[in-house]
Specification:
alpha+beta, 27% helix, Alpha-D-Glucose-1,6-Bisphosphate, Chain A, domain 4, globular, 45% strand
């Protein structure tokens, strides 16, 4: 099953792309809530290149690595990647003075679909706030 989330970001596409693909930026926006943070991020932004982000609860009670491989990289337009046995794509579509960021990903089977959608949407919303605050 595929899940799709979207968010309009009021910034130029180059700025949105850069914030989405730069480890230093990822450390600042990649969290679904204020009690989580990303403590490490690596990006090899090319087809066949690997990425990884270490996400942890701020109280130290839990953490996990989100990692995968880029399967398609079209700068300022599209990212596709695999992570485990799942895939995702991120589209950057210029619209209305900004960019519509659309993420489609394979659902996993451990958590309810609504919970997955809400978690990924919260991260994307945090991303948009971060990018817009930098303008």
């Amino acid at each position: 099953m595929k899940i799709r989330i979207e968010r309009h970001v009021k910034a130029p596409v180059a700025a949105v792309w850069r914030a989405y693909t730069t480890p230093e930026d990822i450390l600042r926006w990649n969290a679904a809530s204020d009690d989580w943070h990303t403590t490490a991020s690596t990006v090899d932004l090319r087809e066949g290149g690997a990425f990884s982000s270490r996400m942890e609860a701020k109280d130290g009670s839990f953490g996990f690595d989100f990692a995968g491989t880029y399967t398609k990289v079209v700068p300022n337009e599209r990212l596709e990647f695999s992570f485990g046995d799942r895939t995702a794509e991120v589209e950057f579509v210029p619209a209305d003075g900004g960019v519509d960021v659309c993420v489609t990903f394979d659902a996993e089977t451990e958590n309810p679909v609504d919970m997955q959608r809400q978690g990924w949407q919260a991260i994307l919303d945090n991303f948009a706030r971060y990018v817009e605050a930098r303008r």
